[in-house]
Amino acid sequence: MSRFCVYLGSRNGRDPAFQQAARALGRELAVRGHGLVYGGARIGLMGELANAALAAGGEVIGVMPDHLVEREQAHEALPQLIRVPNMHERKASMAAHADAFIALPGGIGTLEELFEAWTWQYLGLHDKPIGVLDTAGFYAPLLDFLDATVEQGFLNAETRACLVDADAPAALLDALEARLASG
Questions:
Q1: 100-103 and 80-84: which strand pairing?
Q2: How many domains does the chain have?
Q3: From CA 63, how far away is CA 97, in angstroms rounded?
Q4: Among 6, 84, 118, 173, which one is most buried in terms of CB atoms within 10 A?
Q5: Domain harbouring 113, CATH code
Q6: Does some domain include residue 138?
Q7: Using one digit for the tens of pLDDT, what is the confidence trace for 35-89?
């Protein structure tokens, strides 16, 4: 079984498609026999994802720093909630428990986590596949920007190609599973 670390918002966002995609990804991970590692909250897209994975019988591991347990409303019903002292330990623990990374819509924390995991891959600190779920075109402007960084010579095409994107959970998982199988 592979575990997927998913970065996503602790808010729902305005478009109901974001919640639907989080639930669909949670179910799809469980149905395919993959575990979920995420930030441990019971609210927002994080809660939607975890609840869907749990309802479908999936393994769910939450990782949350002590100072966010109250702020993010920790999901106390998780089979495994790992409490860590700080954000650095949270990201390290999530990465250590995961075989691949996915980003769903979210805010600055989600973006920071995505870029850190991708940077770690670029630096050779891991070789785990990374993808973004481009629900309702949420990541389209960012993906266009990344393509522009290639055109402007600040990012090589090979590194850009390491970030997989798809607009549906099943398609994204298919692509990431193929990379897991080949790596």
A1: unpaired
A2: 1
A3: 10
A4: 6
A5: 3.40.50.450
A6: no
A7: 999 999 999 999 999 999 999 999 999 999 999 887 768 998 999 999 999 999 9
